[in-house]
Each structure stands twice: as C-alpha cells, then as structure tokens.
C-alpha cells in the first residue's frame, strides 16, 4: 500500500509495522521483557525469543542491531561457561569436554538469563528499527504532550547518534592525516581518551544551536500548527490500555511473589 505525504510531495510505501503507533511498540517491548522475567520455564522463554525474533526479522534490520546480537551471543556463551563451571548450585554433570565438566544447573541458569537478554535486544531492536525519532516526536505531540517535553526527548535521543557521527568524522580526519593509526584494540582505546571531552562539548554545542534555531523559527509558539502523523495507526488507544493492563498484571504478580516470600 502507498500513501501520499503532501508536505513532502512524495509517495511513502506503507509496511505492516507502520500502522502500529510508537507507544504501542514500546509498550510491547516492555511487556515481552517483563513477561520473560516472570516466566521461569526455559521452553516458554525460547517461545518468547522466537516471537521477538520474528518481529525483528519481519521489520527492518540495522547494522547496530546485528552488532548488539553478536555481542549478546558472545556474552551468553561466556555466561554458560562461567555458570556451568562455578555456579553454587551445580550438582549434576551435563557434559565433559577435555576434562572440563559443565553442570546442568549452571547451564540452565545461564540459558534462562541469555534468553531474557535476547528478548530485550530483539524487542527493543524492533522498536528502534521501525520507528524514527521524528515519528515519535510527531505522534507524542499529536496526542497532547507539550512541545518542550517532546523536544527534550528528541534531544536525548539524538545525543548518542551525534556523538557517533562526530567521532567518525574525527577518526576519518586523523586517518587522512596519517596520525593515530589504530591497528590494535589498545591503540583504539588510547586514541579515544584525548578526544572524549571535545567530542562531548561539541555534541552539546550542536544541541544548543539546534534549540536556538527552533526558538527563532517559532517552534515553541503556542500558535504553532501541530504536525499530523504520517500514518493512520490501528486502534492506538485500545492497544495502549490493553498493554498497560497486562503490564500492571505482570508487575502485580511479581510484587505478590516477592511479598509472599517474606510472609
């Protein structure tokens, strides 16, 4: 399906995830995360991993998400090794490799923690890959959030991408000049330390300049026309109420379990 954006005079292709509003996507990621911590059975955890992975694969994949997944897999493998060897509840041997014995209790504990990490990364990756910062800002302002708070949220979201962009520019300029050649990991870390303070100062200076520019253009005026969302979302209020209700149930059950342990 194609929709016409009259403000930009171009056709935007509508995907299935475009009919889900940003708040619903964020609440869905929170619900899946809380549900993974509520469940203790490994089979249910694997099911949640498959659900969140399906959402991610059916959306747009980014390089940052792939890097996060690869790092998390390395972290999970490390957890399995450490917990399988040194967990305090280890009693039943699971497998022995080169006289190194991994125990069942530690491996299962590490797998449970690893599935929760994957669920968080997949669900948050689905939200980040299918929702832009401008779409978030437009939607939040259209539902009644004050523009000052919307701009504050946008500024916070733009800080890390700006730092990464400025860092890439500085490193590219250094490589073009033949200085600070980064061949090893230690050299990369050493090259980051001298530019951290100027990098942060430059990023905040860009945020201040953007704020001044928006004020001069009258974006904080109460008479400013509120931007309309680009997409027509499917029953956003119902989705919000339903997911908030389910999240409150999960939080209530978890609190009851914690309180019952002290009774």
Automatic annotation (TrEMBL):
Topology in the lipid bilayer: Multi-pass membrane protein
Pfam families: CbiQ
InterPro entries: ABC/ECF_trnsptr_transmembrane, ECF_transporter_component
Transmembrane segments: 16-36, 42-59, 66-86, 106-127, 240-259
Subcellular location: Membrane
Key word Transmembrane present: yes
Highest taxon listed in the record's lineage: Bacteria
Keyword terms of this UniProt record: Cell membrane, Membrane, Transmembrane, Transmembrane helix
Keyword Metal-binding part of the UniProt annotation: no
UniProt-listed PANTHER family: SLL0384 PROTEIN
UniProt name for this protein: Energy-coupling factor transporter transmembrane component T
Organism name: Secundilactobacillus hailunensis
